[in-house]
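Go through this chain for my students:
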Amino acid sequence: MSYSLPEKFEEFADARKAGFLRVKDLKDQGKKVAGVFCTFTPHEILEAAGFTAVSLCGMSPETIPDAEAHLPKNLCPLIKSSYGFAVSDKCPYTYFSDLIVGETTCDGKKKMYELLNRIKPTYILHLPQGHDSDPLTVWTAELRRFIKYLEDHFDVTITDEMLREAARKRNLERQTNLKLMAMQRQDPPPMSGLQMYQALEGSGFVFTHEERVAKIEDLIRTIEETADPEANRGCKRIMVTGCPIGGVLQKTVGAIEACGGVVVCHENCSGIKAAFQMVDTEAEDIVKAIAERYLKIGCSVLTPNSERMKLIPELVKEFKIDGIVEVDLQTCTPYCVESFQIRELAEELGVPYMSVETDYSQSDSGQLSTRIEAFMEML
């Protein structure tokens, strides 16, 4: 079957169209595409079922007005942007998706998925909400339910060996990404945090394991060969933590690095927080091993969020952090509430901390720059 792009997509710049066309090529080849939102989505299962997963997280304010025709204004900008791209037919990844996979990570997303299901078939993974009961048993059963759904609805068979092979490939990708992130341990760090984040985020829109790994390895070699050893000397070493920051990257990370800092560690979803956990591919029960891997992600939707509280002190030491900046999206209740505990943790560690709450608009850019500049001067 041959697919065509909706007319609206012709409005976008050439660079943006390139990603659209890669997905179109997949569909022309008869391959299945799954739109996903969260680091808790078990990519190994989707890949064993023959799906290519692509992120649907909205990172732009341009479609928020479309979303607000259906969603409340006082809702997380990531949710509104994501839904806005889908409902306005401006997202090729939604357009070409055979299935959307959502998850119960927050109430806003759960209810948004109900509306998204009117546009595309949307499957919901029910994530355990805490670590103090038996979440591994619950989550393993949930992943088995997901496997059965894919087998029944897409006429595929998912074997343990398929899952193991998918996990091996994913582990290699994670190890390669970690190698890139580990370069920022150097003093001075060889790249800006902005560059590193954009490289990691961009690799998510390359749709084969081999190409993703090759691109990151090539970037590592290029940095090793060409990075200016004096470029970031004397810069304050900053960790950014909190919500996904793709939609506010320039006015947060960009502002930090414009004020003499360098972000050496992104603890957020697209950074190290969800990269260092590997699947035990030799485990007797591979589905349980996959479930265990994802439950180790230290996201604030889990309570208590002990994994995040353990990880941050390790990263502070490992990356020699001078200051922590928490970036939370407006109305993201789990992270906004948890920021109080992170502030306490930073005080215990003796590391200066600041938190900012923002959205995808530019209305607070000046204020953010002023606050960040004052924080950096204090360091």
Summary: The longest helix spans residues 160-182. Confidence is low (pLDDT under 50) at residues 1-13. The first strand starts at residue 32 and ends at 36. DSSP finds 15 helices and eight strands in the chain.
